[in-house]
């Protein structure tokens, strides 16, 4: 096989897998466990294909598939795209195995698994797309699947409300993206993503602004974030793990590619990201402090985590610091592990004990020791406690900000530190509820379907924190490529 075939093969595995799983569910069996295994097999095949593809990719060699002529589909494997796709596929495997038991009370297995595969396929296609229109199509494939999965528990009024709100707001972002494509095409007569316009005219600049708004909405950039707490709070916990762990971060990466690919100076984009990051960090942490429902607290903390990511990448682009951008990619990996683990643990608590509020988590360590320990590990990591990956990521971000030696970098650094301390105000009380005493000492036996993904993510969280070197090397090429793209 040529390198170009390997670019499209992970995507082909996901799309074919969605079709096969649908047929199996419709004509052969509706057993949840079997459908979960077939879906996991499709994801594993895509992950193997991506691993082979990643060995062919570096900053100077970017395998591509398709044609870049007008009307053609063009995919290109970049180091950053490989990192995002790899994290998404890995997290999706754990979510699918977890759902082998978690969906037992929902019964609509035949639609859940194909939709989740389409979500991941849209995400992978979006980060691989090398032209604006196909990037839009894959982004919409991901978004449409997400709308349905957010409202998956359709008999619950709040789930339908959250899905509809997400649909309306995200559709506004979609229209804005299409308008941006039209503006860019009007000036350049091309939808190629990497045009590197030397002197962007009015229409290209307007197009870039539209992409910032449209993709910024899907990335939960303040003040375009209002859909996220409802969507992440009301979706099934397995879907919330995907949304908070990688979906939001993938659209943010798409925003970076579009802005830099269309010629927006990296210094200008970096300055914008640093300013917006202050809003995300402050508002996300501030509103998380007053939440009483666990999933809404975790959702607001996602807004703050996106702010940390924006700040890290913004510092790297503004001051030409590869280490800061590398810290941003490492932060994406850390967020996927810790957010995914936190939502899966919360789902286990709700599945076995019906808990929704923070107060109802009291005594979880007595009833479900494994879940409580893993949940606590995720919370400590998100709070930045050493030696977990959250601490490593924040340390790298701080180191990059100190290297900037500028007033803007110092202001951002102070805000970053204050917000990190503020986050302890809601992580620590939640941790205290998990390990507090309970009048009921009955133990709950957690299904292996749910325990295995929790153990895997917990183990990876510890491994990435204790041995960050291999993971940092994995993200090194991604940071170098993104920085070179903006030059």
Topology summary:
Layout: H1 3-28, H2 32-54, E1 64-66, E2 74-76, H3 79-102, H4 109-128, H5 132-150, H6 157-188, H7 202-218, H8 228-234, H9 237-261, H10 266-288, H11 294-319, H12 322-353, H13 364-367, H14 369-383, H15 389-404, H16 407-434, H17 448-466, H18 469-485
Antiparallel strand pairs: 1-2
Question: Which labels suit this protein?
Answer:
mainly alpha, 77% helix, 487 residues
Structure description:
The structure is a single chain. It is built from 18 helices and two strands. By secondary structure, it is mainly alpha-helical. The protein has a domain at 267-487. A two-stranded antiparallel sheet has the order 1-2. Strand 1 and strand 2 form a beta hairpin. The longest helix is centred in the middle third of the chain and has 32 residues, at 157-188. The radius of gyration is 21 Å and the shape is globular. The model has no long low-confidence stretch (mean pLDDT 88).
């Amino acid at each position: 096989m040529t390198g170009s075939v390997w670019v499209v093969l992970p995507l082909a595995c996901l799309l074919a897998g969605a079709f096969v799983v649908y047929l199996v569910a419709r004509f052969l069996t509706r057993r949840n466990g079997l459908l979960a295994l077939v879906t996991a097999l499709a994801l594993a095949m895509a992950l193997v294909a991506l691993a082979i593809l990643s060995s062919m990719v570096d900053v100077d060699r970017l395998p591509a598939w398709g044609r870049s002529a007008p009307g053609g589909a063009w995919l290109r494997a970049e180091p950053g795209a490989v990192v995002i796709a790899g994290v998404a596929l890995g997290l999706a495997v754990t979510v699918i195995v977890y759902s082998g038991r978690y969906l037992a009370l929902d019964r609509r297995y035949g639609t859940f698994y194909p939709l989740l595969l389409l979500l991941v396929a849209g995400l992978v296609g979006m980060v691989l797309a090398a032209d604006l229109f196909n990037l839009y199509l894959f982004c919409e494939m991901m978004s449409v699947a997400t709308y349905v999965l957010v409202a998956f528990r359709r008999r619950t009024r709040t789930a339908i409300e959250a899905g509809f709100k997400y649909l309306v707001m995200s559709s506004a972002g979609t229209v804005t993206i299409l308008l941006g494509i039209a503006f860019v095409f009007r000036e350049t007569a091309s939808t190629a993503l990497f045009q590197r316009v030397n002197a962007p005219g009015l229409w290209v600049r307007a197009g870039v602004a539209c992409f910032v708004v449209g993709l910024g909405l899907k990335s939960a950039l303040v003040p375009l974030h209002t859909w996220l707490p409802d969507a992440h709070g009301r979706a099934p916990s397995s879907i919330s793990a995907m949304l908070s762990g990688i979906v939001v971060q993938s659209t943010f990466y798409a925003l970076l590619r579009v802005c830099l690919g269309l010629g927006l100076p990296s210094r200008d984009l970096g300055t914008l990201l640093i300013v917006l990051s202050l809003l995300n960090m402050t508002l996300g942490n501030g509103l998380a402090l007053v939440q009483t429902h666990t999933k809404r607290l975790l959702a607001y903390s996602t807004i703050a985590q996106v702010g940390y990511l924006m700040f890290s990448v913004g510092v790297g682009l503004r001051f030409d610091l590869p280490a800061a951008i590398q810290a941003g990619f490492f932060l994406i990996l850390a967020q996927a592990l810790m957010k995914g683990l936190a939502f899966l643990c919360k789902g286990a608590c709700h599945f076995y004990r019906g808990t929704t509020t923070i107060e109802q988590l009291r005594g979880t360590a007595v009833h479900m020791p494994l879940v409580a320990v893993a949940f606590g590990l995720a919370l400590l990591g998100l709070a930045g406690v050493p030696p977990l990956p959250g601490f490593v990521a924040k340390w790298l971000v701080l180191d990059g900000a100190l290297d900037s030696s500028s007033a803007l970098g110092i202001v951002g650094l102070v805000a970053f530190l204050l917000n990190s301390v503020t986050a302890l105000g809601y992580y620590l009380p939640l941790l205290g509820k998990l390990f507090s005493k309970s009048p009921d000492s009955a133990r709950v036996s957690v299904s292996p379907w749910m325990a295995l993904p929790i153990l895997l993510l917990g183990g990876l969280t510890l491994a990435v924190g204790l041995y960050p070197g291999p993971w940092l090397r994995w993200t090194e090429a991604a940071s170098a490529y993104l920085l070179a793209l903006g030059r």
